Amino acid sequence: MWIFGWKGPSGFSARSTAEEVTEGIDATGLTAIVTGATSGIGVDTTRVLALRGAHVVMAVRNVEAGKKLKESILNEIPSAKIDVMQLELSSMASVRKFASEYIASCLPLNILINNAGIMAPPFSLSPDGIELQFATNHVGHFLLTHLLLDTMKKTARESNREGRIVLVSSDGHKFAYNEGIRLDKINNEAEYNCYRAYGQSKVANILHAKELARRLKEEGVNITANSLHPGEIATNLARNNGLRVKSIDVT
């Protein structure tokens, strides 16, 4: 069983590293955006993509932290191609600004990894008046993907290489409210449960990936969309409640 480090059908196990999984893959010529690139699995995702030759754009809230990580990776991998851009996913204005600047750069986009997120904070609203977990984990990534989709389609068409959209969800989707996504009660502080609200946002990630995959296939576009549960990893994702679990972070 994978939980004991035994290999599954893929040939990998819970103990497999990103370097092992990507051994032999040449990502030269690919451009990838990784949100939440300075913390948790975002760090290793950025490092290993760069190691395999991809041009990685770190979409991060804390630009200084991004620059420090870039410097650290360059010390290890002098040939790495990395850029740092500011992105605050809880702010739709920030998401629009990021997308506008990215499109203006005329960079291609082969891979979009929607990794950033927060887990179980006390109730609060985003700058746009949306419950913070739903705004950060789902709405921000939904808008980002929508705004960059034409660029991804153009890249897939011109490069003749399959594009990839990855939404980092969580097994925590099982802890959503009984109704699933409570669209009519997103901002209901009186009934807010930090863990169920987290699960709700993860359900939204999964549904987003499934519907996007269906539409891309229907259009005949050479792009795949998938959601995933990355496993239980000791990171600072749940720093709001003292737990250290699955890694996705907005820093």
Walkthrough of the structure:
It is a single chain. The protein has a 6-stranded parallel sheet with strand order 3-2-1-4-5-6, sandwiched between helices. It is built from 6 helices and 6 strands, in the order αβαβαβαβαβαβ. Residues 242-251 have low confidence and may be disordered. The two termini are 34 Å apart. It is globular and about 50 Å long. α6 links the parallel β5 and β6. By secondary structure, the chain is of the alpha/beta class. It has helices spanning 18-21, 41-51, 63-76, 92-104, 132-159, 194-219, and strands at residues 31-35, 55-60, 81-86, 111-114, 163-168, 223-228.
**Percentage of residues in helical conformation:** 25-40%
Strand portion, in percent? 5-15%
| Global outline | globular
Give the C-alpha Rg: 18 Å
Tell me the total number of β-strands.
6
Structural classification: alpha/beta
- Report, as a whole number of angstroms, the end-to-end distance: 34 Å
- Largest sheet, spatial ordering of strands: 3-2-1-4-5-6
Total DSSP helices: 6
Mean pLDDT: 90
**SSE succession:** HEHEHEHEHEHE
* pLDDT < 50 runs, ≥5 residues: 242-251
Main sheet: strands, sense, barrel: 6 strands, parallel
Secondary-structure blueprint:
Elements lengths: L17 H4 L9 E5 L5 H11 L3 E6 L2 H14 L4 E6 L5 H13 L6 E4 L17 H28 L3 E6 L25 H26 L3 E6 L23
Parallel strand pairs: 1-2, 1-4, 2-3, 4-5, 5-6
Helix pairs in contact: 4-5, 5-6
Organism: Linum tenue
Protein name: Short-chain dehydrogenase TIC 32, chloroplastic-like
